[in-house]
Every structure is written in C-alpha cells, then in structure tokens.
Design goal:
Blueprint (H helix, E strand, L loop, with lengths): L8 E8 L2 E10 L3 E10 L2 E11 L8 H6 L12 E10 L2 E7 L12 H20 L2
Antiparallel strand pairs: 1-2, 2-3, 3-4, 4-5, 5-6
Length: 133
C-alpha cells in the first residue's frame, strides 16, 4: 500500500525469476488517479509510462456540495480528462519524452536534468519499499 496521496494507492512488483522487470504504482486522490509503470532493462530504468486521470470535481462532490458552493457540476467520472507521458531512459538519463497533450512545453523548454531527477527519485522510493521488507 502507498500513502503518498490523500486516498492512498498501491504498488505491484513484477519479477522474471529473481530479477525485477517492472513496477506499477497507482496513486489515488480526491481529484485524480495516476498509474505509473516503470520498466527495467538490464536492471536499469529504461521506460516509464504515466497515465493521469483528472476528475471534473473531487470524488465527494455531490449535489449538496454543488449547491453549497454555487457550482453547476457534481463528480462525474465520465467527464475526466486523461494525459499520458512516455519517458525513455538510457544510462539513467532521459533521451525522449512523448506527451499525449498537445499544449505541453516543447523539448527545448523542458529541464531534462530536473525531470530525470524527479522520475528517478520516485522510482528509487519504490525500490526502497522492497529493501525495507
């Protein structure tokens, strides 16, 4: 179980024989859920697939909440928006990212060093969970 977001989450580790090959982390929140898949090649991070679902309203936003906040919508999962990011690594460095949304910053504007540290930091936290067992 993961408790890094308001609604928790979970992580699953996949092995081939005794070698870690893939990690899937799901984070749940009041206004989103994300699933991130980490793929390893030769025991190094090689590919990350991140899928984010953003809800139109928090999951508890019912007609009472809507009226008390003078809103015009209740939580409706069918109104969620989705984004996907595919990140490719070589030797612990990002060499390509592909985004599903069209308005994402161009490659020139992306701070690749910071992006690499962020993704590898999240990955390392999941690895540390294994080591604590």
């Amino acid at each position: 179980n993961l408790w890094e977001s308001t609604e928790g989450g979970n992580v699953i580790y996949y092995y081939h024989q005794s070698t870690l090959e893939k990690i899937i982390a799901r984070h749940l929140g009041e206004t989103f859920q994300s699933v991130t898949e980490y793929y390893l090649l030769h025991q190094k991070l090689s590919f990350v697939f991140d899928r984010m679902e953003r809800y139109n309203r928090p999951i508890y936003w019912d007609s009472t909440q809507m009226l008390s906040f003078d809103d015009n919508q209740v939580f409706d999962r069918d109104k969620s928006t989705f984004t996907e990011t595919r990140t490719y690594f070589d030797n612990d460095t990002i060499f390509q990212q592909i985004y599903s949304e069209q308005n994402h910053a161009s490659d020139e504007a992306t701070d690749w060093h910071k992006e690499t540290l962020t993704i590898i930091g999240r990955f390392n936290k999941l690895i540390q969970l294994i080591e604590k067992k």
